[in-house]
Amino acid sequence: MTGTRSPEGLLERAGVRGNPDRDQHFLIDERVLDRVPGYLPEDADRSHVLEIGGGTGALTDRLLAASERVTVIERDPDLAAFLREEFAAEIDADRLTVVHGDALEVDLPDDATASVSNLPYGVSSEITFRLLPLGIPTVLMFQKEFAERMAAESGTSEYGRLSVSAQHYAAVEVVEPVPPTAFSPPPAVDSAVVRTTPRDPDYEVDDEDFFLRFVKAVFTQRRKTVRNAIRNTAHISGLDTPDAVVDAAPEALLSKRAGDLAPDDFAELASLAAEHGVEGGNG
Ligand SMILES: C[S@@+](CC[C@H](N)C(=O)[O-])C[C@H]1O[C@@H](n2cnc3c(N)ncnc32)[C@H](O)[C@@H]1O
Question: Is 153 helix (H, G, I), strand (E, B) or coil?
Answer without folding.
Answer: coil
